[in-house]
Amino acid sequence: MSLTPQWLDELRARTTLSTLIGKTIKVQKAGREYKACCPFHNEKTPSFTINDEKGFYHCFGCGAHGDAIRWMTDQRGLPFLDAVKELAAAAGMEVPAPDPRAAKRAEQAKSLHDVTAAAQNWFEDQLGGLDGAEARAYLHKRALTDATRRAFGLGFAPDSRGKLKTALRDFPEDMLVEAGMLIRPEDSERDSYDRFRGRLMIPIRDQRGRVIAFGGRILGQGEPKYLNSPETPLFDKGRTLFNLDKAAPAARKAGRIIVVEGYMDVIAIAQAGIAEAVAPLGTALTEAQIEKLWSMVETPILCFDGDGAGQRAAIRAAHRALPLLRPGHSLAFATLPAGQDPDDLLRAEGLQAFEAVLASSIPLADLIWRSEHDAASLATPEERAGLKQRLNALAATIADSDIRALYSRLFKERYDALFFAPRAASNARFEGRSAGRGGGTMKGGRWIAPPPPATQDAKAIRETGGDMLLLRAVLAGLLRFPGEILVHREALDSLSPPDSGLAKLLDALLKAADRQETVETEALLTILGSTELYNMAKGLLRADALHFTFTQAEADGWRAQRDLAEAIGVLVAMPRIEAELAAATRAMAENLDEASFARQQALRKLKEDLAARAAELAQPLED
């Protein structure tokens, strides 16, 4: 049956998602969206939202996310084709007739699946036998448990040219070659032979959990270190992500997905308690893989090694993602300490250290700016002009016009702040501080101010979490810098303020920004009119007592916008971390194992770190 992407998009467009979901659970209108208590986990306060315009649902409690088809498969439990047929009948659409060629390909693939499944079973048997002693010793050295070995189906290919061929002799030789299990020499007089020899075998599965290919790691000396199956009717390297079958459901619950460099990184991370990790298969991340990641979460985290190769891989992924960007979808980048991969960090410092690396991830735009800024000297006017040209060229590759304009503006603001920011104000502040404030030291000809006293805002955030205080500060910042509303549109849209007044004000700001790309503060106040929202907005603008860079009347624009972006990120992250921490606490109580305890502790520390960062943003201004 040939179901093209265009036909499926039409089916989704003809299905009103809130009406479909409303047949099963009670939904209520909430602004431009609908809300309900999530059917995927128990909750009393609705955190499940339905957006008819965008055609998806999302739960901010458990991370469940999907469209009309996924609702039918995940909530109703229907097979994919049955779900499509039922939706098509309701939408008055005819399901395309079966394609004979597609049916033939499906039958061929089914047969090849039998080959790879049989090979997988044989590899596992060899790992447990006499020939597998060296491979078992390697797994022991990597501190991988038997449970992990079984979960990933690890196996061993003996160093032999014909043992697998003999074991799978019930299959025609042509099928074994087509499935990538055997190599057939160009010299027709020579026999085919086993592709994988003397290697730890790591099965690669499709999203349905079926083995479609293998990666083999050599145990002794030799090259290549890792060997993948060739491209086959089952296996398209550029469209496949290792561990996607396990990571996809975990990502929906966690609300994140992590991309690392290799198989063993994924396996080590999974053993530590993080199931939502995947890896590309020895190549740079492709456009198809990026799209697949976006189908699960809006901002995947790419976590690469801190060495030159890892950073080059991050830059390649960033450049490849730019033309594909669309509203709400981007990438974040986390960098491991130099000389360490995820396995090294986990074994040396534990899960908490790895979670800290993930928590420090930076947005795609920041990575682009940083890499181009550091790419060459900026000592001369010509070199500085080169930076501007490179940034403009990269922004120009973005297909979405709104995002392209916002990236161009962001790069221009940072460029201007770097090379044209006035110095007089900072000099005056320096002179006044050295003459009129006690404490501080001189170091290398530069004044080092004493640590500022903690404000009441900072204390409130540290002691109570201060979500409402931070939200008030963010709204005040948006009123002072209305252009930032569109920059952070998707993140702000995900917020659900518990205070009805603040929720209405946030909704009004978003609607105003949607109607006009750039809005001045006074124009915003005019739009709000003589309503209670106007009075609330005026009150927030008078709140200079809020000690945030972005709430001050005389704020430094670039720094204030930077801190405002970070504050919004903290606000968005806090509910997710709270939900993950609650789930991890329940899991720890149920499982009573070390991995569950470690994950709970790591999330608790992450929550504390978020509160601490929010408190730092509420400190008095420093230079």
Can you tell me about this structure?
The termini are far apart. With 623 residues, this protein is an alpha+beta fold. Strands 1-2-3-4-5 form a five-stranded antiparallel sheet. The chain has 28 helices and 18 strands. Strand 1 and strand 2 form a beta hairpin. About 7% of the residues have low confidence.
Give a quick summary of the entry.
With 623 residues, this protein is an alpha+beta fold. The protein contains 28 helices and 18 strands.
Structural class: alpha+beta
User: Which consecutive residue ranges, at least 5 long each, have pLDDT under 50?
Assistant: 422-465
Mean pLDDT across residues: 82
Beta-strand fraction estimate:
5-15%
Task: Tell how many strands the DSSP assignment holds.
Answer: 18
Please report the distance between the alpha carbons of the first and last residues: 64 Å
Estimated helix fraction: 40-55%
Strand order of the largest sheet: 1-2-3-4-5
Taken from the alpha-carbon principal axes, the silhouette is globular
Main sheet record = 5 strands, antiparallel
Task: Supply Rg.
Answer: 28 Å
Number of helices: 28
